[in-house]
Structures are given as C-alpha cells and as structure tokens.
Amino acid sequence: MPRNVPRNALRHEPRGRTDRHAKIKITLVSGNAMAQKLARVVAIYPGSFDPITSGHLDVIERGAHLFDRLIVAILGNESKKPLFTLEERMEMLTEALAPYPNVEVDCFEGLLAEYALRKGARGILRGIRAISDYEFELQMALMNRRLQPNLETIFLPAAEQYSFVSSRLVKEVVSLGGNIAGLVPPSVERRLRERFATATEKQNRKTK
Ligand code: PNS
User: What distances in angstroms separate CA 154 from CA 62, 67, 123, one per listed residue?
Assistant: First the structure.
C-alpha cells in the first residue's frame, strides 16, 4: 500500500487486483481522497458594515473557528448611501480583523451568490439577533441557494450582549451625543465621533 494513504481510500477498489495498472489507479483514487480531505472550507460573511460593530466582530470571531477561510465581504453598493466610503469601511475592517489570520477583507458588487462562486465559497455566514431578523435572512438564504444550489447559509445567533446592536442605531446614538463605548471597536468609535463632530461644526457654521 502506498505510504500516507488512508485505509478506507481503497474500499471501493475491486478485490485481488494486483497488476501494475490497478496499483496506479489505487494511487489516483487515494490522491482524490486526500485532496478532498485537504480542501479548505471557505465561507463569506457579507454585509454593509457601515460601520462594523462589536456584534459583527463576535460573529466573525466565532466564524473564524468554524471555517478554514472566512472572507468578510463589504457590499460596495453606494445606493444605500453609507456614512463611510467603501475605502473607509475596508480600512476599519482590516484594522479590526488583523488578529485573525484566516479572516480576510474584500468587497463585492452585484449578486452575492455569484461572488461566492468566484471565491470558491461553500457557505454564507449571517448573524441573527432576533426572530425579526430571521424572516428576511431566511428569504435571502433561500434565494441564494436557488441561485447557487451548493451554497449553504449558516446562521449564528448573535451574542446576547450585542443582540440589540446595529450599525444604524450606533450611528444615531453617536449623532445625538450618546455613549457607544464597547458597542464598536475603539478605532471605529473615534472615527464615528470625528465624522459627527465635523458634521455638527459644518452645521454650526451654516447657522451662524
Ligand atoms: O449588512 P446588511 O445590509 O444586512 O447586508 C446585506 C447584504 C449585503 C448581505 C445583502 O444586501 C446582499 O447580499 N446584497 C448583494 C445583492 C444580492 O445578492 N441580492 C440578492 C440577495 S438574496
């Protein structure tokens, strides 16, 4: 038997074949089995991330343990009128995700299912905060599976301490001068404060 070949890789071979070709075939089948074992499970965690919150970070950290490679993919669609440009969001995510070696940051436009196919991803990761999230998330998961039948969506329940946190609420609270410490990474909090301070300054200058 070739070295490093798992026993069960030979299971489907006809018994008693000892000729040279049979040996070669055994090696090829074993190669496939090994390749399958070594195949890395890639998943995409898509979103607007305008900006990334501690809730997103928690899902990413847990996802990084589940998949060999996790691609955090920012939707580059400007029609959602984001507060931060795509470049700024890429910067914030890259900074926040630096400690995770198997997590990378990317951006996409168009259909998520097609992007996932291009990236060789088998899974879409999404966090669910409350049952109200589930309805829309389920629709997206089923649509994505219809578009790419091999693409599975994996839902992770949000950590309870972040189950009320959303990018939209965080922006609203900062814009009204509220405390968001711990709800976003510190560098994101700083950027949010700067962004709204500039907006308030501009507003004050206009009204003077
Ligand atoms: O952070 P969000 O806004 O909840 O993320 C939504 C996102 C980016 C996952 C979703 O809008 C999306 O996948 N958009 C890409 C376009 C697409 O594929 N639409 C069909 C989805 S069923």
Answer: 12, 11, 7
